[in-house]
Design brief:
The complex is a heterodimer of chains A (112) and B (113). With 112 residues, chain A is an all-beta fold. Chain A contains no helices and eleven strands. In chain A, strand 6 and strand 7 form a beta hairpin. Chain B has no helices and eleven strands. In chain B, a hairpin with a 5-residue loop joins strand 7 and strand 8. Classes of the chains: A mainly beta (112), B mainly beta (113). Chains A and B meet through strand 4, strand 5, strand 9 and strand 10 of A and strand 4, strand 5 and strand 10 of B.
């Protein structure tokens, strides 16, 4: 059974602080790793699709790294703002199989 | 560019009934995936349709079935509803390719009583 784990499950961060969380996935037959942000009452929003070992992607204050050999990805948020409050989900795609296997998410709450 | 839409937003059904959920893909997308999300869990892949053909299925029983239409809109049908089918159902559309970035609708909240 393929498993994608995210940690921590939830996180409270003071506004202005930086934070990061982890997505662990199977290290074999890797094809792609997706990160999504899901705000309450909205649709999940794609952040990054990462395909190469050592990939680093950045969108504003949010960045992500990828290690396919050891099976993990980190998501970093620099200088957290209240609008960053959301659940961050990662999803693993294996080989040419189009199925995405999802983690349960990290719920991030920014305290003003 | 129109985003992904789903209908209805909420639905309450009784155990044993049948339900149809609908999804309109983002303009230009030819692939749609359906997911079930139970409380506190990540989305679980139900199946994917590419150009009107089922193209991959997760660990869901045959009473979960789908259709994709020539305009790439899609339906998810669930027969003989069970209490455990209560969940948020998400559809996501994409343009089949190397990246296959998926764009999600807001979901349909199904409650089975």
């Amino acid at each position: 059974i393929l498993n994608v784990e995210q940690s921590p499950q939830s996180l409270h961060v003071q506004e202005g602080d930086s934070t990061n969380f982890t997505c662990s996935f199977p290290s074999s037959n890797f094809y792609a790793l997706h990160w999504y942000r899901w705000e309450t009452a909205k649709s999940p929003e794609a952040l990054f699709v990462m395909t190469l070992n050592g990939d680093e992607k950045k969108k504003g204050r949010i960045s992500a790294t990828l290690n396919t050999k050891e099976g993990y990805s980190y998501l970093y948020i620099k200088g957290s703002q209240p609008e960053d409050s959301a659940t961050y989900l990662c999803a693993f795609r294996m080989d040419s199989n189009y199925q995405l296997i999802w983690g349960a998410g990290t719920k991030l709450i920014i305290k003003p | 560019e129109t985003g992904v839409t789903q209908s209805p937003t909420h639905l309450i059904k009784t155990r044993g009934q049948q339900v149809t959920l609908r999804c309109s893909s983002q303009s230009g997308h030819n692939t749609v995936s359906w997911y079930q999300q139970a409380l506190g869990q990540g989305p679980q892949f139900i199946f994917q349709y590419y150009r009107e053909e089922e193209n991959g299925r997760g660990n869901f029983p045959p009473r979960f079935s789908g259709l994709q239409f020539p305009n790439y809109s899609s339906e998810l049908n669930v027969n003989a509803l069970e209490l455990d089918d209560s969940a948020l159902y998400l559809c996501a559309s994409s343009l089949r390719g190397a990246v296959d970035e998926q764009y999600f609708g807001p979901g349909t909240r199904l409650t089975v009583t």
